[in-house]
Amino acid sequence: MSELIIIAIGSALVSNVVLSQFLGLCPFLGVSKKVETAAGMGTAVIFVITLASLVCSVIYEFLLQPLNITYLQTIVFILLIAALVQFVEMFLKKYMPPLYESLGVYLPLITTNCAVLGVALTNVQKTYGILKSVVNGFSTALGFTISIIILAGIREKMEHNDVPAPFRGMPIVLVTAGLMAIAFCGFSGLL
Amino acid sequence: MNSGKERLINGIIKENPTFVLMLGMCPTLAVTTSAINGLGMGLTTTVVLALSNVFISLLRNIIPDKVRIPAFIVIIASFVTMLELLLEGFLPSLYAALGIYIPLIVVNCIILGRAEAYASKNPVFSSFFDGLGMGLGFSIALTCIGAVRELLGAGDLFGFHIMPTADHPWMFGGKEIAFFTPASIFVLAPGAFFVLACLTAIQNKVKLEGEKKGKDMSKIGSGCSEDCMNCGEEGCGKRRFYDTEAGEGPVGKKEEQKTEQKNIEKQKIAEQQKKAEEKEKVKEREEENNE
Fold it and tell me: Which of A139, B56, B199, B207 is deepest in the core (most CB within 10 A)?
């Protein structure tokens, strides 16, 4: 149990997926204009990454390892993830329209998001079992959600600030992200 | 031969994926802790990009339009796996330094973006040079960013001591000169964001000044806008695994239809947003009235 908690804190805060590993940077910068959309994106990411790490680790454990074809992991995982996202989208559209309306817009943006594949590969690299993989996936995605919501909050406040012309738009967001990364460096003493 | 040269120059200068288009930001930030890492990542990506462009271009009349994305992904992932195994075998130090970012080349938007935008519509020869040019442009950019970060953060360049730090001072006639203190934050994660922020600020400056002079600057920063939700860029976001809207035929023949559909979609999204905003305004007013 304590091991699971350490994994969770480690991947959510200490080595935050965006701020220290730079995975999933595109949606982090691109969908963080408003807190509302950021929260929607975060929820969708939690949903997809948890599901993807479950499916990927099951396939790895029961298909790739017994057949001795673990070197195919990258190809298998990326296809699994892309197919999974498409399937989830269709499933939600058909059976859970309210959930589809709130998450559906974000799903195509996640299809080839590097964070999803990154988590699946880290799980394999660190030889996590199925349970640990799911915990790692969920907490990594939680870390993503935390940081994207904080960034969106800061961006909303910053909207009417007087920023020097060349720094308007992307550069000032990157500076903000850099300052957040410094703050998150503080968590490294936690474990 | 002319078109090959033109593609090379296009990739390295006119449409440089990092400095001009702003594509593939994840590896750009993650592996540029030193110039040599940046170069290694850039060259690995170049090989994958050139080979996958050639293969996709060869198969462009066979792959059905509906399943083109999975087909492209399989081709790219195969080359990445091959390169990963080769690096593990022959360059273990680089393999260890780049770590998980090697398999993540699969999801680099430059590669799928070039496959969709260029290789699936053009002959093999120019596709190869397009991939090569884009890859070299990416390598040069990563090496430059890596060099800046290494120089500021450690005082080194390609692993050699350059700046006069306390450990490695310059000697002038028996005197030690050591005025440079490395700011190690530039090698850490936050430094990557700051360096990229300065880079995009310079881009913006160039863009603003170019626009003042009336030049066409639309290419700068076009690869990654700030707004993923309304961006129709083929390189990263709105890609479907199984494209239900595409025709049955081979890739690239129904481009015009697709762009039309995309425009219509964009309009729809914009309209929806407007409606939502209006609703919010109405709500706010109602609330104010209630108060």
Answer: B56
In terms of CA atoms, which chain B residue is nearest residue A122? B100
Q: ∠ at Cα B66 (B61, B71), nearest 5°?
A: 65
Helix (H) or strand (E) holding A19: none
B135 vs A74, A174, B11, B39, CA distance in Å? 21, 24, 7, 11
CA distance linking residue A153 with residue B91, whole number of Å: 44
Q: Which of A21, A46, A12 is nearest to A177 (CA)?
A: A21
Residues 83-142 in A contacting B (C-alpha not used; CB under 8 Å): 83, 85-86, 105, 108-109, 111-114, 117-118, 121-122, 125
Is the separation of the CB atoms in B105 and B45 below 8 Å?
yes
Instruction: Print the SS3 string covering chain B.
Output: CHHHHHHHHHHHHHCCCCCCCCCCHHHHHHCCCCHHHHHHHHHHHHHHHHHHHHHHHHCCCCCEHHHHHHHHHHHHHHHHHHHHHHHHHHCHHHHHHHHHHCHHHHHCHHHHHHHHHHHCCCCHHHHHHHHHHHHHHHHHHHHHHHHHHHHHHHCEECCEECCCCCCCCEEECCEEECCCCCCHHHCCHHHHHHHHHHHHHHHHHHHHHHHHCCCCCCCCCCCCCCCHHHCCCCCCCCCCCCCCCCCCCECCCCHHHHHHHHHHHHHHHHHHHHHHHHHHHHHHHHHHHHC
**Residue A136 pLDDT > 90:** yes
Q: How many CB atoms neighbour CB A101 within 10 A? A: 11
Alpha helices in A68-186 (DSSP H): 73-95, 97-103, 107-110, 114-125, 130-158, 170-185
Residue type at A146 in one-letter notation: I
Give the separation between CA B63 and CA B244, rounded to whole angstroms.
Answer: 15
| Residue A169 in contact with partner chain B when CB distance is under 8 A | yes
Tokens of A191: 């474990």
Contacts of A174 in chain B (CB under 8 A): 193-194, 196-197, 200
Token duo for residue B162? 């350059």
Cα distances (angstroms) measured from residue A19 to each of A182, B29, B37, B261: 9, 10, 20, 36
Q: Is residue B2's pLDDT more than 70?
A: no
Q: What residues are paired with B157 via a beta bridge?
A: B160
The tens digit of pLDDT for each residue in B173-222 reads 777 777 778 888 888 888 999 998 898 888 888 888 888 887 777 777 66
Rounded distance between C-alpha atoms, residue B130 and residue A74, angstroms? 25
pLDDT in tens, A34-48: 888 888 888 888 989
ipTM summary value: 0.88
Which strand (E) or helix (H) includes residue A18? none
